Amino acid sequence: MTVEVQDTSRPYTSSDNPNHERRWLVLCIVALAQLTVVLDATIVSIALPQAQATLGISDGDRHWAVTAYALAFGALLLLGGRIADFWGRKRSFMVGMVGFAVASAVGGLAQNGLQLFAARAGQGVFAALLAPAALAILTTTFREGAERARAFAVYGAISGGGAAVGLLLGGFLTQYVDWRWCLLVNIPVALFALAVTAPIVRESKAHGDTRYDVPGTILVAIGLGGLVFGFTQAEKHGWASTETISFIVVGLLALAAFVVVEQRSSHPLLPLYVPWDRNRAPGLVGSMMVGAALIGGTLYLTFYLQIVLGMSPFVSGAASLPLTAAITVAAGIAAQLMTRVGPKVPMTIGPVVAALGLILLTRIDVGSSYVAAVLPGLIVLGLGLGLVLVPAQNIALVGVEDHDAGAASALVNATMQIGGALGTALFTTIYVSAKSSFAGTNPDAHPFAVEVAGYTDVFLWAAALLAVVCPIVLALVRARKADMPAEGAVGMH
Question: What sequence ranges are listed for the domain Major facilitator superfamily (MFS) profile (predicted)?
Answer without folding.
Answer: 26-481
